[in-house]
Write a structure and sequence with these properties.
The structure holds two protein chains of two kinds. Chain A is α/β, with parallel strands linked by helices. Chain A has five domains: 139 residues, Ubiquitin-like (UB roll) (Roll), CATH 3.10.20.740; 125 residues, Alpha-Beta Plaits (2-Layer Sandwich), CATH 3.30.70.20; 167 residues, Rossmann fold, CATH 3.40.50; 125 residues, 3-Layer(aba) Sandwich (Dimethylsulfoxide Reductase, domain 2), CATH 3.40.228; 95 residues, Barwin-like endoglucanases (Beta Barrel). Chain B is α/β, with parallel strands linked by helices. The C terminus of chain B is likely disordered. The structure holds flavin mononucleotide, iron/sulfur cluster (4 copies) and FE2/S2 (inorganic) cluster (FES). The site of one iron/sulfur cluster (SF4) has 14 residues of chain A, from α5. Chain B: NDH-1 shuttles electrons from NADH, via FMN and iron-sulfur (Fe-S) centers, to quinones in the respiratory chain.
Chain lengths: 725, 429
């Protein structure tokens, strides 16, 4: 413990803390701009200067470690002058007219309409108005005029990337975005460029963020004290009325997230205790208030679809379920709340239908907690793009590690993670398990994996007998036998696994292939259908691709109280941030209403069939007729019945996940061009997709993301036909 | 002492093919390294350098032996030497001569320094424009390796050393020692916050010695002749000879090796051949970061303390001479423009302050100055000097303050009359 005095207040603080941290811990305010608690000290803005007894000059408190017996003064006329001088200089590089305007208090009443100007020339034109740190500092340091004219940089506003925009004319070069990108995300996308007054934040070679390794996590946007970086969708949302802490439901990690709410709308979301990924940071408000969302009940009457009241919609659903009692399949998405799942069990128990979901490989499920990863070890990632899909998990695991351990990727496709990896091993398709054997056990098996022996030896040397963590995609690898030193963790994209395992439900495919089923009740799912049904009841946020007869609008996770089970097996709470949009209702409410109206006599449980244990599909070799191997990858950017790309333009640009990845040599043989439509034909299905020609995938193989509504659910052998040239 | 001029750094420069290892060895080269390795232990080498009063020749004038002593002995990390060959300070052009004409003296110095501090890898961070020096250094390293003065088990001992030539990225700030380290690590040259100093945490987070080319090139003769001999050449606490690079309005511009503490008058009139094209008006004694001295202040000895006493600094000893036809507003604008362009952009006062000073000088120069412009510029000084991460901020303030206070009448003439008193006409650039 270190004892020091700040402004005559005796303070005790643990060793290694800075004077700024000591002051903050005791609510002594020191003006700062470049400091951010979770980033390394930078010392650039020079606002946080303090005086230390015995020191000749003022020093920056954000970089100065506390020493025993230090006597610190955080305020004096000299310091105030110094800070004013510095802030004036900062403002001379930033449009300041509104900051020092003596009418600024009254301005908002009259001038709201001038927001959304293409160029920001003052606070009233800026999306950060009311949230900007410069505004606070100008008040605090009582700056009334600035002796220098503004040097406007005249840079083009960077609007070409999805999710966020950058107007570096507003940048005050605090470097927070740069450090956030490097230190929080290890992404290294942005850095200062040029020198002197030309200094500006930018990417290497002026690439767009899409062309770099940018994860669109928004850590940079959240770090920015000014309006230089702004979220595209929520930027004009204004100052929130309240912030509601809840859990992001887009993936199984279930991050804590703060929803910013204004006038019963989610205007944006921000990280609470740890970083978010692009889905949680930029996806939530756009998802909840998506223009494609349907928030009223609809009913098919003859050939017409009409909007109805809840009573009528529920009544219709109940009638149909009664009519098709025992012939109804209830297919649900794992992305529901525990409460909704419980309600579904009740409904099934009433004997009106059988439950099914599209989860495979559940047998691989294993609980894990972050504590398991306290010991640093190399990370091996198998067939999953952990940077795109589970970046937050990896950041959390690595955060506590002092040393950086190697990242090894095993994947037949060149993913973003493969690009970032220390070693990328590209085995032949289907040889992943063999490769694992070669890597982890003293096997004298002949190496037929297609990976060079030297490379295998290099990786083995990296393990150095310390073991490793293996993260793998459960739907690609059926069975992996590993030594005890290797901790294997299957990464499931969907939540609620332990719950669903106990529910003992059918696989949705079995239901879809069951001829006796005439009615489907789809709760958050939209499968590709094998036959026509007499009735389809759909309960969701969006209209399912397979069509419907009765549509019941469900409230999103931002609109409900409830819970779900995250990848670590723990329960996460959902806190209602806004009232359900339109007439939508929580999933569990809808299901319970139906169950109650069905009028169930308790104890009539009849399970139509015992759940079947799915056999691992045998790998079929491509043949002359079907020369390509179609690999279907789990899509962590799907939620309930939609892929995020189909709902939001940003995700479409970022993920491009409705594309078929094909090797240039194969494309050339087929005379198929990038961006053109191609038909994929297998024994039992046919669909059209856009080709993405890339050498990230091996020849003879095409890759697509899992999409049940299109029938892309498992690996197949296929034939391709150009339908556009 | 000697009537013969003492030549330590320049002793081989007149020899034919002075940059080959044969010529160097023929003139006694690599004897000092052999002596150090075979007859002395590292502490003794370091003690000799401490005794020599060798001060850093890169600008700050910090005693070299003391700096080496800061490197922790018990650290189990690798230690590095970075030789600062960025030579970015305008008016400075001495290191290039050493590297081109006598690269082996530098290499021998590097080897001895590394032996003394326990270093096994040294980088020469060299200004990218020095294409010729880069090629010569690379050849010299090969030559020295072939003769086992570098490489593994040097001269049969267990001392190993690799030297790497690293080409700079072309920024003045990459010459600042922590900017250099960042640049060497492949990052943007942005000076680091100190403490920790490089001696504790330097390149790749390891203890690192950063020294100027000339500093290191002095080391072989210190070991050969002894620290006391070297100390005896200069003045108290500032030993040896110094390469004075004289440029500007003199008849014989060039690099002159003279004992530390030689008088400026002697350098200008005896060696550089006197003032050219007019009378002496002002001298910048140590590269543009040093405060300007008016002609009447030029009767000083050129060692660290004497120049400091005169209100300037010896710096890199790049002496820039100006005759009475030089417009001081234009000269300062030239300097300010350089600083405004070269600030790394981290610290507000340096980045923005240098920009404003340049802007204000530009308008004064164009006859559009305002009456309070001088006060505005001077009011910047307390906000910049000593308020920044690296010494760049101070380097900017020295010239601004000294030019304006010492030649105030010229600046005022520009402001009031809207034209230049030297050319007596509106200055159109
Ligand atoms: C802005 C700035 C630029 C510098 N440029 C150089 C340079 O080009 N060459 C050099 O040797 N030292 C330069 N220095 C000084 C170095 O920071 C450092 O003090 C020096 O390399 C230490 O070596 P020495 O002790 O041998 O002088 C510069 C310092 C500053 C503040
Ligand atoms: S969005 Fe994330 S990865 Fe992209 S630049 Fe910002 S911090 Fe870096
Ligand atoms: S963009 Fe924002 S966070 Fe980045 S340096 Fe500029 S002001 Fe700071
Ligand atoms: S990692 Fe998962 S839970 Fe976290 S923000 Fe992204 S989608 Fe949401
Ligand atoms: S003083 Fe100037 S050059 Fe030095 S770190 Fe600060 S901004 Fe960069
Ligand atoms: S907060 Fe300390 S220098 Fe910016």
């Amino acid at each position: 413990m270190i004892r020091l005095k700040i402004n005559d207040i005796p303070i005790e603080i643990e060793e290694g803390k800075t004077v700024l941290e000591a002051a903050r811990a005791h609510n002594i305010r020191i003006p700062t701009l470049c400091n951010q608690a979770d980033l390394a000290p930078y010392g650039g803005c020079r606002l946080c200067m303090v005086e230390i007894e015995g020191y000749q000059r003022p020093v920056t408190s954000c970089t100065l470690p506390c020493h025993d017996g230090m006597v610190v003064k955080t305020d004096s006329p000299q310091l105030k002058d110094l800070r004013r001088f510095t802030l004036e200089l900062i403002l001379s590089e930033h449009p300041y007219s509104c900051l020092i305007c003596d009418k600024k208090e009254d301005c908002a009443k009259f001038m709201l309409c001038i927001q959304k100007e293409p160029v920001t020339l003052g606070c009233k034109y800026c999306s950060k108005d009311g949230k900007c740190e410069l505004q606070v500092l100008v008040e605090e340091l009582e700056i009334k005029e600035i002796p220098y004219p503004l040097t406007y940089r005249g840079l083009e506003v960077e609007r070409w990337d999805p999710f966020f925009e950058r107007d570096y004319n507003l940048c005050i070069l605090c470097n927070r975005c740069v450090r956030a990108c490097n230190e929080i995300r290890h992404a290294g996308v942005i850095q200062f460029q040029y020198r002197g007054p030309d200094t500006v934040v930018g990417t290497a070679f002026g690439l767009t963020h899409l062309e770099t390794a940018c994860q669109f996590c928004g850590a940079c946007v959240d770090a920015c004290p000014t309006g230089a970086m702004s979220e595209r969708y929520g930027k004009w949302g204004g100052v929130p009325d309240k912030k509601v802490s809840t859990s992001c439901s887009f993936c199984s990690i279930a991050c804590e997230v703060l929803l910013n709410v204004r006038d019963n709308a989610v205007i944006s979301s921000e990280p609470e205790h740890h970083p978010l990924c692009v889905r949680g940071r930029f996806g939530i408000s756009q998802f909840v208030h998506n223009p494609k969302r349907v928030t009223e009940p609809f009913l098919k009457k003859g050939t017409r679809i009409v909007e109805v009241e809840w009573d009528e919609a529920l009544q219709a659903a109940v009638e149909k379920l009664r009519e098709f009692k025992g012939r109804t399949g209830i297919i649900f998405s794992p992305n529901l709340t525990v409460e909704a799942l419980d309600a579904l069990i009740e409904l099934e128990n009433s004997g009106f239908g059988i439950l099914g979901t599209s989860l495979d490989s559940l047998s691989a499920y294993a609980d894990f907690s972050l504590e398991q990863f306290s010991k640093p070890a190399p990370i091996v990632v198998l067939n999953t793009d952990i940077i795109d899909d589970f970046s937050v998990l990896m950041l959390q695991i690595r955060k506590s590690w002092k040393e950086k351990t190697p990242l090894i990727v095993i994947d037949s496709a060149q993913t973003k993670t493969a690009d970032k990896a220390d070693v990328w091993l590209q085995p032949k398709l289907g040889k992943e398990e063999d490769l694992l054997q070669l890597l982890f056990s003293e096997s004298d098996k002949r190496n037929t994996t297609g990976v060079a022996n030297e490379l295998i030896e290099t990786v083995k040397a990296m393990f150095n007998g310390n073991g490793a963590y293996l993260f793998y995609n459960p739907s690609n690898i059926a069975h992996v036998k590993l030594p005890g030193s290797v901790k294997a963790i299957p990464l499931f994209a969907r939540p609620n696994l332990s719950k669903i395992m106990n529910m003992q439900v059918q696989n949705s495919n079995d239901i879809l292939h069951d001829d006796s089923i005439d009615c489907l009740f789809l709760v958050g799912e939209s499968p590709s259908l094998k036959k026509t049904y007499k009735v389809i009841i759909a309960q969701d946020h969006f209209i399912p691709a397979c069509g419907y007869d009765i549509f019941l609008p469900a409230a999103t996770f931002a609109e409900v109280d409830g819970s779900f089970i995250a990848l670590d097996g723990k329960r996460r709470t959902l806190n209602k941030a806004i009232e359900p949009v339109g007439k939508s209702k929580p999933d569990d409410w809808i299901i319970k209403e139906i169950t109650n109206n069905l009028g169930v006599e308790a104890g009539t449980t009849t399970r139509a069939k015992e759940p079947t244990q799915k056999a691992t599909p045998k790998q079929v070799k491509p043949t002359g007729k079907y020369p390509f191997h179609l690999v279907v990858r789990e899509n962590n950017y799907r939620f309930r019945n939609k892929s995020l790309s189909s709902l939001m333009k940003g995700f479409k640009k970022f993920r491009n996940d409705d594309c078929l990845w094909i090797h240039p040599a194969d494309a050339e043989n087929l005379k198929l061009k990038d961006g053109k439509k191609v038909q994929i034909i297998s024994k039992d299905f046919s669909l059209t997709m856009t080709a993405k020609v890339t050498d990230s995938v091996p020849a003879g193989t095409v890759y697509a993301f899992h999409d049940p509504s299109a029938g892309l659910v498992m690996d197949k052998i296929v034939r391709l036909e150009c339908i556009e040239s | 002492m000697a009537k013969e001029p003492i030549r330590i750094l320049t002793k081989n420069w007149d020899i034919k093919n002075s940059n080959t290892i044969e010529a160097y060895i023929k003139n006694g080269g690599y004897k000092a390294l052999e002596k150090a390795i075979k007859q002395m232990n590292p502490e003794q080498v370091m003690d000799e350098v401490k005794k020599s009063n060798l001060r850093g020749r890169g600008g700050a004038g910090f005693p070299a032996g003391v700096k080496w002593g800061f490197v922790p002995k018990d650290s189990d990390k690798l230690k590095y030497l970075c030789v600062n060959a960025d030579e970015g300070e305008p008016g400075t052009f001495k290191d290039r001569y050493i590297m081109t004409l006598d690269p082996h003296m530098l290499l021998e110095g590097i080897a001895i320094t590394s032996y003394a501090v326990g270093i096994s890898a040294a980088y020469i961070y060299i200004r990218n424009e020095y294409i010729e020096s880069i090629a010569i250094l690379k050849t010299a390293i090969q030559e020295a390796k072939a003769k086992n003065y570098l490489g593994a088990s040097i001269l049969g001992s267990n001392f190993n050393l690799e030297i790497y030539v690293h080409r700079g990225a072309g920024a003045y700030i990459a010459g600042e020692e922590t900017g250099l380290i960042e640049s060497l690590e492949g990052k943007r040259a942005m000076p680091r916050i100190r403490p920790p100093f490089p001696a504790a945490v330097g390149v790749f987070n390891c203890p690192t010695v950063v020294n100027n080319v000339e500093t290191i090139a002095c080391v072989p003769s210190i070991i050969e002749h002894g620290g006391e001999w070297f100390a005896g050449i200069g003045v108290s606490k500032d030993g040896g000879t110094k390469l004075y690079a004289v440029s500007g309005h003199v008849n014989n511009p060039g690099v002159y090796e003279l004992p530390v503490g030689t008088s400026l008058q002697k350098i200008l009139y005896e060696h550089a051949g006197g003032i050219k094209g007019g009378e002496l008006k002002a001298v910048i004694p140590g590269g543009i970061s040093a405060s300007v001295l008016a002609a009447r202040e030029c009767d000083i000895a050129m060692d660290c303390q004497s120049v400091a006493k005169a209100g300037s600094m010896l710096g890199s000893a790049g002496i820039i001479v100006m005759n009475n036809r030089v417009c001081m507003v234009e000269a300062l604008f030239n300097i300010a423009e350089f600083y405004a362009e070269e600030s790394c952009g981290q610290c507000t006062p340096c980045r923005s302050g240098s920009h404003w000073i340049k802007n204000i000088l530009e308008r004064i120069l164009h006859g559009k100055g305002k009456t309070d412009d001088l006060e505005i510029m001077l009011s910047f000084i307390p906000g910049i000097m000593g308020r920044t991460i690296c010494a760049f901020g101070d380097a900017l303030c020295g010239p601004v303050q000294s030019f304006i206070t010492k030649f105030r009448d010229e600046f005022e003439y520009h402001i009031i009359e809207g034209k230049c008193n030297i050319r007596n006409k509106l200055d159109i650039l």
